[in-house]
Prior knowledge:
The structure holds two protein chains of two kinds.
Chain A: H1 8-11, H2 18-47, H3 65-68, H4 73-82, H5 87-90, E1 96-101, H6 113-132, E2 135-140, H7 146-156, E3 162-165, H8 172-183, E4 188-190, H9 191-210, E5 220-223, H10 227-238, E6 247-250, E7 253-254, H11 262-268, H12 270-278, H13 288-292, E8 297-300, H14 311-315, E9 322-325, H15 335-340, E10 345-348, H16 363-372, H17 380-393, H18 413-427, H19 437-460
Parallel strand pairs in A: 1-2, 1-3, 3-4, 5-6, 5-8, 8-9, 9-10
Antiparallel strand pairs in A: 6-7
Helix pairs in contact in A: 6-16, 6-19, 7-8, 9-10, 9-17, 11-12, 16-18, 16-19, 17-18, 18-19
Chain B: H1 3-11, E1 22-26, H2 32-47, H3 59-71, E2 76-83, E3 91-101, E4 109-118, H4 127-141, E5 146-149, H5 156-164
Parallel strand pairs in B: 4-5
Antiparallel strand pairs in B: 1-2, 2-3, 3-4
Helix pairs in contact in B: 1-5, 2-3
Amino acid sequence: MGGTLPKSRTEGAAGSDREEEEAKQSRDAEEETREISRRAVDLARYYAGKIEVVPRVPIRGLRDFAYWYTPGIAQVSREIHQDPGLAFDLTGRWNTIAIVTDGSRVLGLGDVGPEAALPVMEGKAMLFKYLGGVDAFPLPVRVKDASGLVETVERLEPALGGVNLEDIASPKCFQVLDELRSRLSIPVWHDDQLGTAAAVVAGLLNALTLTGRKIETASIVLLGAGAANLATARLLKALHADLGAMMVVDQHGILNAHREDMDSLMLHHRWKYELALSTNEGRRKGGLPEALAGADVLVAASTPTPGLVTGEGIASMAPEPVVFALANPEPEIWPAVARAAGAKVVATGRSDYPNQVNNSLVFPGVFRGVLDARARSIPDEVVITAARELAKGAEVRGITPEHILPTMDEEGVFPQMAAAVASACVDLGLARVHRSRAEFLSLARERMDRPKRLAEVLIRNGLIPPMPPDPMGNPSGEMEEET
Amino acid sequence: MTEDAERSEGAGEGETPPVHGVRVRPATTQDLPVMAGLLVRLKRLNEEFDPLLKVREDAEEKAEKVLTADLGQVQALLLVAEGTGPDEGKVVGVSRALVRERPFYLPEREGVIQDIYLLPAYRRRRVGEYLLSETVRQLKAKGASLVTAEFPAQNQIATRFYAKRGFRPIVATHAKRL
């Protein structure tokens, strides 16, 4: 997905006049976002929906309905009644997921409710189809409490091969994911936790290697204790990172087992409570500056607060630190500033800078893989497999400080991830379908390629109308944004 | 009490409880400021369970006064759990209890556990169990032949912690705002 912005932005005026550079980048980013937002509303009105349901069977005439519907379909129904597992063979269930949200934390907008979440879920469904070949139904639901949400999703299971949870407030999202993972016999994924965490971990694995570090001994600071960072911490733990040396910083400072809000966390946010107990063994107190001093890695996935991370903070880290500044659209620190302060590897959430940490690198391959294996679940081991495969995918073009992750246009990586995920499901005994990795790879390639061919045909034949001209003068309708 | 304490303490039946990193001893005047802080933490935890347990602005100040008064009374019992190792000498837990007469009932003397609090990092290591058993032991030594514990009615964690150790409700306090 092409970054069409001036190249000078990635190079920057490192060090010369940092503040001015920072302010300029911030203004550019705001202006670009305003421009895209205006156009997005026009286009939403013009196209009125981003996905639609299309038959996948030939209809030579009305008589064929006898196979696709009554009377023939009754026999298909009877067979599934005898063996419910056949739903994966005789219907589209194998390739169907729901994108479920309660609209309680949509993008950076907050609790905008299910109706306002719909355009976002629709967009996600389009990405699922286009990038992963997955038929995804956007399903914002009107339910407030975690147990109601869990129950709602549970009731949807018979129609689905998987569930993608999206934009659910923390800590509700942890409870919902944990409960659904244990209750359902299909994979349940929360992209804001697992998708982001897998991309972060993939990037970190390469960044650590590049800077001569080992995950077991690196000191890692996580800024922000939301869905993404809590999941990242969990995956890092599974990869044997030194949790005792890890520090998690939230709006109240460094998380530590003696902090005043611990009892409140115990009652209301046990995931964060657990992290407070297992991280920061030295019980370091203070805020981000105290946490950064001497640290090897910063992963910032915070509520956007520009200027939160400073060049001085980066300079106080260990030599050649790794800095992930993932807030969107404006990162916690601009790459030029971080590099000028000594950062060796810098990643952001943006497509116009090197090293974009992006959920879209992860969920298409992961879902392609679990659906192809018809997996019963997707445990963290499989998430780590996906992260490792993504990290490996960056090797194709060579791993450098500017390339620790594949970009979205390195398309060869994604079927490889799908095959790795599917094979991992087989190895863990979670798959309903057993095939070799090579077979999974060719399945994934075919299934991920199909929607692109489909779109091409529809566009070529005018069934999808071309982008209308922009009345405000932006000649190109080209745009892409992070999910 | 904490769910953490409960989780580990409920598990190993019949084993000798490993008590890591604490000593329990009677409180002294020097302990009072830290104890007051821990007591207020407990009250803030209680606050989570009921709006009628809203903690006062001056709670810390009051806590020091209450604890100071307790120290001078024979019927009161104040114990602290003191860390060892990296937390050597640091007060990490507190129990506050008293022995009182029961003019109408038998048995005649009751040991009342008013507060037990342990810093989160010391939970799940049977420290809570240890602190409780020391408290009970010393209440008994002061003549109590019945032990009761006071905590917010909505605190399910405490309810389970005590229930597992043979406690059951005998008196209920019902409140109504005026």
